[in-house]
Amino acid sequence: MQFQTADALKRLPEQFFARLVGKVTAAVRAGHDVINLGQGNPDQPTPPHIVEALKRAADNPEFHRYSPFRGHAFLKNAVCEFYRREYGVTLDPEREVAVLFGGKTGLVEIAQCFLNPGDTALVPDPGYPDYWSGIAMAGGRMEMMPLREENEFLPDYRSIPETVRKSAKLMFLNYPNNPTGAVASRDFFRDTVEWASEHGILVVHDFAYGAIGFDGKKPVSFLEIPGAKETGIEIYTLSKTFNMAGWRVGFAVGNPSVIEVINLIQDHYYVSLFGAVQAAAAEALLGPQDCVRDLVNLYERRRNAFIGTLRASGWDVKPPAGSFFCWLPVPEGHSSESFADLLLEKARVAVAPGIGFGNAGEGFVRVGLLTDESRLAEAAQRMTRLGLFEKIR
Ligand code: PLP
Asked: Does the beta carbon of 128 lie inside 6 Å of ligand 1?
């Protein structure tokens, strides 16, 4: 028998990238040496001291029982210490921190917490598709905020029509940005706080790539801005900073009334994460941080190898300022999808077509810096050998 699913599930967006995975798998099965730069899965292992902390904690019978519903106090205290040390932000561990099963969970939950059917959420375009999923499940409406190159891939609040602005309840932002690699300045966040608080819009800043800023520039936390805590929250994950994507641990910090509602919905969905994962997460936040510096340096070397090779052969591309993605304009006469197909077929390099991140992503492809420098340089060589690219003027 085929059972009917709930309407909320029918609204879920199509998984665009499943198609890409299928194409790459077919090329690999056909025996081709594909360099897969299409995904966003960190390739490095979790630093050993964090893995050791998990192993020790796994032996502790206290963690074999249910965790406290809203997470262990030691982890919430560690989050506060991390934000104080890294960003000079003071947080109350009980009222201003919610422990999450990875950032993704929080990003999907938040729409369900604050949107009624028909309510509007502002979404960056291009942007991370999980924002769409939560909005769809809540029955909300998405209004796209185009991120244009001429505006440094930041939204232009003043160009949002008044009717949209008035109906908006929630807004997603994400810097360092997936997919464009752009970072936000303090001035941009100041403007965001001012604009969002004037119009009563809840800001959800996705800080997934918070640790990954290049050329010696540390990305700014939204919460560093005076007034930010009144206006919104930030969602942080250990997936990228500490190569812990498989561990599923993150947290939301900021406005206490919003944090309370996240905790409330989670009281109904889950009991918090395995205590030993929480212990290892606390070790990651409080323990030695050279692993983070080494990781950022690694991504920066990869970026330089990839972009440097493209530029040396005359392709005019800009290096990303943060995240581990490069956002490349496609050559004349191509769509992002036809170009990605061409690269897979002729260069055996897989990239993600920009259209998968929203309509304003058309005209670009995303490259993940998630393989070693020599493979990245080789990918760049294979791409430039096609001879399709705009010359540096
Ligand atoms: N936000 C962005 C922009 C991402 O790219 C990702 C993961 O790729 C996430 C959030 C979610 O990360 P996680 O659920 O592993 O914490």
From this structure: yes
- The full length of the chain comes to 393
| Pick from 157, 254, 245, 156: nearest CA to 209 | 245
Q: Could you tell me the residue ranges of all domains in the chain? A: 7-45+291-392, 48-286
- CATH superfamily ID and name for 7-45+291-392: Aspartate Aminotransferase, domain 1 (3.90.1150.10)
What's the average model confidence in pLDDT over 38-64? 97
CA of 104 to the centre of ligand 1 (A): 6
Dihedral sign from CA coordinates of 40, 33, 355, 307? positive
Ligand 1 pocket residue status of 208, Cβ below 6 Å: yes
Ligand 1 mean position, distance from CA 200 (Å): 26
- Give pLDDT tens digits for 287-339: 999 999 999 999 999 999 999 999 988 888 999 999 999 999 999 899 999 99
Q: What is the pLDDT at residue 391?
A: 58
0.85 surpassed by pTM: yes
The domain 48-286: what is its CATH number? 3.40.640.10
Contact 106, 266 (CB under 8 A): no
pLDDT-based confidence at 156, cuts 50/70/90? very high
